[in-house]
Specification:
Elements (H helix, E strand, L loop, with lengths): L4 E4 L3 E2 L8 E5 L6 E6 L8 E6 L4 E5 L14 E4 L4 E7 L2 E6 L5 E5 L12 E3 L4 E8 L2 E8 L4 E10 L3 E7 L5 E6 L6 E7 L4 E8 L9 E2 L2 E6 L2 E6 L4 E3 L9 E6 L2 E8 L2 E8 L5 E8 L6 E3 L5 E4 L4 E5 L5 E6 L3 E2 L3 E6 L4 E6 L4 E6 L4 E7 L7 E7 L2 E6 L4 E5 L12 E4 L6 E7 L3 E7 L7 E7 L5 E5 L6 E8 L4 E7 L15 E6 L5 E6 L7 E6 L4 E6 L6 E5 L3 H4 L3 E3 L9 E4 L5 E6 L2 E8 L2 E9 L10 E5 L2 E5 L3 E6 L3
Antiparallel strand pairs: 1-58, 2-31, 3-4, 4-5, 5-6, 7-8, 8-9, 9-10, 11-12, 12-13, 13-14, 15-16, 16-17, 17-18, 19-20, 20-21, 21-22, 23-24, 24-25, 25-26, 27-28, 28-29, 29-30, 32-33, 33-34, 34-35, 36-37, 37-38, 38-39, 40-41, 41-42, 42-43, 44-45, 45-46, 46-47, 48-49, 49-50, 50-51, 52-53, 53-54, ...
Length: about 650
């Protein structure tokens, strides 16, 4: 079949989220202070920005296609002097960046691959780096010699927490490196000795020391909600003398005056605190930023970076001296896309919490701005009755967008429901009126929460932990029985929390109550079971362990009346490849060897009924396939190919 249409993916603002604004020395010619920050982009690769105190920028693009897994995100950075930045995004590699030439050198560490967050240490005396990542089921750390360009030691299974966060110097040549255990919520302080090459956990507490914290007299300031302390690493003690009367992330000080920021809705209020007492004063506010994106210059100016790459400069009284919109636009990796009945494409790029719109009628596409108010990405999208509904990480919230009206969050899209125990939306379904979705519990907790939202009345229903310990990652609505047919996994989000269930299951839930009416337990050892789609009104194609060789037919005809679900091997061969439900009983989009076809499962046969894309068309390029409104949407890095499936 000939291509229906090819369009460019609209460029959107990149997210500078989970990263910090790191000090990067001074310009040789001007003496201006410099700062480093990088984006997260799993599509084309991370962008790094070197910006000086006057907002003058230099961009560095880490092409993912040329390089390593670390090119997607560079959460940790350390300046080593002489225009050299060391960057870490993946535990298996570390990168040396020459800020003057743009030269990039990558080094293998010998450690397994794992996502490195903040907290990397650079020790000037030994010229060593220290950084960590969670590689399930434990945290692994690397000590790396930047002079020799080789790993000194790998610390395996020393840290019992799950995510690195920050570090402080202890004053004796050692460092306190902080981690959070997302299972318990506790913070672990570990001592790294770069000379003796030892690592030991020293303190377990409820209190977080932020990355690059406020330091005074060798002590680090802790601000965790209503709990505020000074931490002395010399004797590992906490004290409450002269603490601020407000929670804030402090990013610098001049004498006794400390400067910090506290979130107030979508804004960060910048405040000054006289450390001789407890009182603070608010200086100004800045949108979409926070203390980790702010720094105090030598001459007591406040430089601010925002989530989407804008730069501000204030004086110490909070007067704005400068604003500059830096170039933070890029092709983001599309997580979700929907084609509306009016020919409007709505897409959501990874981690930005934004969305874009492309009108096929006019050929105009654009960045539509915020889709929700969290810090992650929109992960489930559906059109219902002319509106587009978007469920997003990190809060599991649902927003409603009207494509006929100008985009302007929080008015359009607007938040319509906010679950209490949801984090990452992982699957969805609808019955034409109600939008159903399942969201994983927050990090550290197994299981999930169900949400049902009535798009006509606004009524909402929740069911937290519908089956203890299991997260449901696939969901289909059955009109005949008014039920949800769902498949689960025993795995926890990012593998961080302890698994509490031994087996996963297929379950049938009442669409009215969200409670299970029948459960089919899988064999022990099955990690995930997916309800791929309906074969007919009684039967579903089911895939276990993510392997298409382990296909089953699930029958729900007695689920409501007798509480019985059966699951048997199919009486027909399943084609190798991947499947996407085409939202009509028995029809699936099937892909293999770079070809895409429409297949039908009927009368104990699985047959190709229409060729959509010829063999090898998409075999050797990065692509993702979505089904929406009788079309398949094939995404490359920068374009969308649209093919008509049903006339």
């Amino acid at each position: 079949m000939k291509e229906y249409k090819n369009i460019p993916i609209p460029i959107t603002k990149e997210p500078y989220v989970n990263t910090f604004l790191y000090p990067a020395g001074f310009e040789k010619d001007t003496g201006l202070e410099r700062y480093w920050i990088s984006s997260c982009n799993i599509n084309i690769g991370s962008t790094g920005i070197l910006v000086n105190e006057n907002g003058e920028e230099k961009r560095f693009v880490f092409q993912r296609a040329n390089s390593s897994p670390m090119a997607k995100s560079l959460y940790s950075a350390c300046y080593a002097g002489n225009d050299i930045m060391w960057l870490a995004g993946d535990l298996s590699q570390v990168i040396r960046l020459d800020l003057s030439t743009g030269g990039i050198t990558e080094f293998k560490t010998g450690a397994p691959s794992g996502l490195v967050f903040t907290g990397m240490v650079y020790d000037e005396a030994t010229k060593k780096l220290f950084f960590s990542a969670f590689v399930s089921p434990r945290e692994i750390s690397v000590s790396f010699d930047t002079v020799k360009g080789e790993t000194v030691r790998i610390y395996d299974d020393t840290i019992t927490a799950t995510c690195s966060n920050g570090n402080i110097p202890n004053g004796d040549g050692t460092y306190t490196v902080t981690y959070i255990d997302q299972n318990s919520g506790n913070w672990h302080y570990a001592i790294w000795d770069p000379c003796g090459e030892t690592l030991e956990e020293a303190v377990v507490t409820k209190y977080e020391i932020p990355n690059m914290p406020l330091m005074k007299d060798g002590k680090a300031y802790i601000s965790c909600g209503n709990k505020r302390f000074w931490y002395d690493p010399s004797d590992r003690s906490f004290s409450k003398e002269n603490i601020c009367d407000r929670s804030a992330v402090f990013f610098g000080s001049n004498g006794d005056i400390a400067y910090g920021a506290d979130q107030a809705g979508d804004e960060a209020q910048i405040l000054a605190w006289d450390m001789k007492g407890s009182e603070h004063k608010v200086l100004c506010s800045v949108p979409e930023s926070g203390g980790k994106l702010m720094r105090l210059t030598r001459d007591e100016k406040i430089v601010v970076f925002t989530l989407y790459g804008d730069f501000y400069k204030f004086d110490s009284d909070g007067n704005q001296l400068m604003f500059k919109e830096l170039d933070s636009r890029a092709y983001g990796n599309v997580d979700c896309i929907v084609l509306t009945n009016d020919g409007i494409l709505v897409g959501t790029p990874f981690i930005t919490q934004r969305f874009w719109v492309h009108d096929l009628n006019t050929g105009i596409g654009y960045d539509a701005g915020r889709a929700a108010d969290g810090g992650g990405e929109v992960l489930q999208v559906r059109e219902l009755n002319g509106k587009v509904y978007m469920a997003s990480y990190t809060k599991g919230r649902l927003t409603e967008y009207d494509p006929k009206k100008p985009a302007n969050f929080p008015d359009n899209p607007r938040i319509v429901t906010a679950p209490k125990n949801s984090m990452r939306p992982v699957c969805k379904a609808d019955d034409g009126v109600n939008f159903y979705y399942s969201s994983n519990h927050p990090y550290g907790r197994a299981g999930c929460e169900f949400t049902k939202y009535n798009t006509l009345t606004g009524e909402t229903l929740f069911n937290d932990s519908p089956v203890d310990g299991l997260a449901f990652r696939s969901m289909q609505y059955n009109k005949k029985y008014n039920v949800l047919v769902a498949g689960s996994t025993v795995a926890t989000d990012c593998g961080i929390a302890k698994e509490t269930a031994d087996i996963c299951c297929l379950a049938v839930f009442s669409a009215d109550t969200l409670k299970p009416v029948s459960i089919f337990n899988c064999e022990k050892g099955v990690r995930i079971v997916t309800v791929a789609g309906a074969i007919n009104e009684d039967e579903y194609l089911v895939l276990m362990n993510g392997s298409f060789k382990d296909a089953y037919v699930m029958n729900i005809s007695k689920a409501v009346s007798e509480g019985i679900v059966t699951c048997t091997s199919p009486k027909f061969p399943i084609l190798d490849g991947w499947y996407i439900y085409a939202e009509r009983d028995g029809y699936f989009i099937h892909g293999a060897d770079g070809a895409i076809d429409l297949v039908r499962i009927e009368n104990n046969k699985c047959e190709i009924v229409k060729g959509l894309v010829e063999k090898d068309t998409y075999k050797n390029i990065y692509s993702r396939v979505f089904y929406s409104n009788s079309c398949i949407l094939v995404l490359t890095r920068t374009t969308i190919d649209i093919y008509k499936v049903f006339d």
